[in-house]
């Protein structure tokens, strides 16, 4: 009767789904971080590369600050262009790697032979059929006895 207590296994989440979720979360995190990197380090860059804007008199400080910010603006353009090119290259390579990995796993799965049924499965099915027939006979006998 142990065969009657069989419960199907719960479906497991695919490994690829968890990997995809982690990848998307990481990309989203970097998406928000990279927006603020340049703004966070711009004063340090301006102070290092354009020290004339630091410590100037109040009258000319605004003019020097605006001039140095214009120069860092061109640095920002160069940074963002190089960042876009490098990020697209990296993400393209990552996408190609994930697709190739999935294709290799599928190819390896196709090469594996189909699993053979477990030994004794026919005996278990026959035992289940016999148990089912006995239950049907008992149920039929109870219905006949209850009908009198």
What profile does the largest beta sheet have? none
How many separate structural domains? Answer: 2
Cα-atom radius of gyration? 35 Å
The helix count comes to: 3
Shape: elongated
Mean pLDDT: 79
Q: Strand pairing plus helix content: what structural class?
A: mainly alpha
Count the beta strands.
0
What does this structure look like?
- By secondary structure, the protein is mainly alpha-helical.
- The chain has two domains: 14-112, no CATH class; 118-148.
- The chain has three helices and no strands.
- Helix 1 packs antiparallel against helix 2 (58-111).
- The longest helix is centred in the middle third of the chain and has 54 residues, at 58-111.
- The radius of gyration is 35 Å and the shape is elongated.
- The two termini are 31 Å apart.
- The model has no long low-confidence stretch (mean pLDDT 79).
Draw up the topology in text:
Layout (H helix, E strand, L loop, with lengths): L14 H35 L8 H54 L9 H26 L2
Can you summarize this structure?
The protein contains three helices and no strands. The protein is mainly alpha-helical. The protein folds into two domains: 14-112, no CATH class; 118-148.
Features:
148 residues; mainly alpha; 2 domains
């Amino acid at each position: 009767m142990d065969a009657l207590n069989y419960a199907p296994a719960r479906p497991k989440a695919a490994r690829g789904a968890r990997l995809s979720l982690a990848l998307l979360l990481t990309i989203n995190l970097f998406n928000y971080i990279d927006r603020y990197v340049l703004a966070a380090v711009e004063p340090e860059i301006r102070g290092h590369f354009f020290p004339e804007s630091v410590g100037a008199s109040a009258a000319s400080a605004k003019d020097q600050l605006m001039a140095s910010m214009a120069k860092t603006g061109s640095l920002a353009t160069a940074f963002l262009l190089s960042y876009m090119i490098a990020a697209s290259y990296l993400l393209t390579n990552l996408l190609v790697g994930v697709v190739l990995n999935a294709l290799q796993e599928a190819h390896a799965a196709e090469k594996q032979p189909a699993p053979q049924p477990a030994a004794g499965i026919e005996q278990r099915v026959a035992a289940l059929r016999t148990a089912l027939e006995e239950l049907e006979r008992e149920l039929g006998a109870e219905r006949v006895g209850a009908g009198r």
